[in-house]
Design goal:
The protein is mostly helical. The chain has 12 helices and no strands. The mean pLDDT is about 90.
Length: about 240
């Protein structure tokens, strides 16, 4: 067993181009990337719970047993699907400063998660290591490294940015149903006691709850929060200099 076989699934080895191309037998009828793409299509239309080895095999016109030649388990399939759904990161504008590049990275990250929200439901058990995931990491690290932060702090900062993006997308999706926010505001007005909750009442009266910040996609609230996160990183940059 080679070192990569000891730590990587068969599917992940193929995604990295480490599969044994010299193996005997007929030419492969498909690929892990094609199987993952079929799984992504299924998850996008029917939800990640609908993704089973049998369902993906049927979508591709294979038997379930044939699929196991490429992907050893449903968990391995989900990991490959996450890599496929994220895709390669957008090419950064190297002429821009670190902050502008990280802003663009975060918005692109959010866009991919909104396009494939089921990704947030997948529990991989360990940090994913697919080639697209690593390309996103490389892109984010390269942007933050321009700030002059040491590698350890670059890693911490990107983890915080990505965590902010994921939590924001998850919250937006939770309240994405049309009219959900309006209904909540109306209910809040009916039950809110100004004397008991004066600060909540003040925010309610300001109209802050009546924008689109809780539904559907990146909004002014997303941009505000992202600016706060980057302000903190900027402060760290200046303190480290």
């Amino acid at each position: 067993m080679t070192p990569d076989e000891a730590v990587m699934s068969r599917a992940m080895r193929e995604l990295w181009g480490l599969a044994d191309d010299g193996r005997r037998g007929p030419k492969p009828a498909t690929s892990v990337r094609a199987i993952a793409a079929a799984g992504v299509e299924l998850a996008d239309t029917e939800g990640v719970d609908a993704v089973t080895m049998a369902a993906v095999a049927a979508r591709l016109g294979f038997t379930t047993m044939a699929l196991y030649r490429y992907v050893e388990s449903r968990q391995d399939l989900l990991v490959a699907m996450v890599d496929e759904a994220l895709g390669p990161p957008p090419e950064p504008n190297r002429r821009r400063g670190w902050r502008a590049q990280v802003e663009a990275w975060a918005r692109a990250d959010a866009a991919q998660l909104f396009a494939h929200p089921w990704v947030l439901e997948v529990r991989t058990g360990s940090p994913p290591i697919g080639p697209h995931v690593l390309a996103w990491m490389e892109s984010g690290f390269a942007a933050l490294a321009k700030s002059g932060l040491p590698p350890g702090r670059v890693a911490d900062a990107l983890l915080i940015v990505d965590g902010y993006v994921r939590s924001s997308v998850q919250l937006a999706l939770q309240y994405a149903a049309p009219g959900a926010t309006d209904t909540w505001v109306q209910t809040l007005r009916a039950v809110l006691d100004e004397d008991r909750f004066p600060r909540v009442h003040a925010v309610l009266e300001s109209g802050a709850f009546e924008d689109d910040s809780l539904g559907g996609g990146p909004s002014g609230t997303f941009e505000f929060g992202l600016a706060l996160v980057l302000d903190g990183i900027d402060r760290l940059v200046h303190d480290t200099a």
